[in-house]
């Protein structure tokens, strides 16, 4: 079963492939130098036994439509894995594909001290193809520029073995895993063989966070070369025996002597010859003692005349005298070390005090700058508020003036309205009186024009006539 890059399980059966650790004999593709790429490698602890071989790889350019070699096998080779990646880191990098790995063998790339290679054999071709498509050209980490480079393997040939020392009783082909003590069986899980030829279960080595082998403690990481702390050169280096500062010599850029002038640490170790140089005396110092007169450190010289020293000649009491001298030197060295450590403590305390003062000064300046910035903001707001207040005061003054004008206008309007009301009421009263007068006149006219009035008038006229 294999897991593709999309996470779909694919079951594929096929004949078992040879182990990467097996020696192949005369493959036709491997023999054709024009069709394959050869990479020399070695494995094993160089102090005990070293095995050398050649890996024959398919080239990257292929003529098949899929871009993969036609006669490929589920055997791939991961080139140029950085040394800082431990076995557990590489297993974690492989992710879920580690479940489909039958065997992994870590080998040392010839000519690349900071890189190693990994031979990987999968349980089927689909798993190998999925692993190739998923990881080829992918960065080992998002924080570094190293890229995973994978090629299909044609053949693995071992050319010889060199035994430098007597090997341990544990053979390279271990029957059990040294971590879990279970049998090393490919049916139960993948097997990882370290660069020192010790085999483990992949699941067990995945929990080993150290870069060394759990059995022999061999580490494939090479110690870093010393460089100048200032210009990073690797030639003519000197290390201060007081504080450990590494600087270049006076024949380069002279950072070591500049360090002495700045710190007054007068003793410096030449890394190439392991000799100590005294900048004050301007010479090499082989043995230092403390002077009883002034307490200064001076170079110890033999007090005998040439060819008369019993220690140098190997006299009878030379061993006891030498032991007493060694004890005296130890005491003097301890005193020297204490003095130098005290000077170093004072120096670093002064450095810390200077850094603390600079930090406090920067903090104070930052606080002042922040307060000034905040004060400027507050001042701007205050000016804006003062302008708004002045504007509102002007508006308020204008409104008060307008209020007095409108009050006068309202009073005039009220007086005019009252006068109009009085005039209207007076006119109404006049009209009412006129209406009453007209009504009285109309009533009189109606009375004058009635029949009874006419008859009474006639009677009055007849009686008058008769009396006449």
TrEMBL record:
UniProt KW keywords: Coiled coil, Metal-binding, Zinc, Zinc-finger
Location of region: Disordered: 1-47, 449-468
Keyword Zinc appears in the UniProt entry: yes
Recorded coiled-coil stretches: 396-434
GO molecular function: ubiquitin protein ligase activity; zinc ion binding
CDD domains tied to this protein: RING-H2_BRAP2, RRM_BRAP2_like
Originating organism: Spirodela intermedia
Protein name according to UniProt: Uncharacterized protein
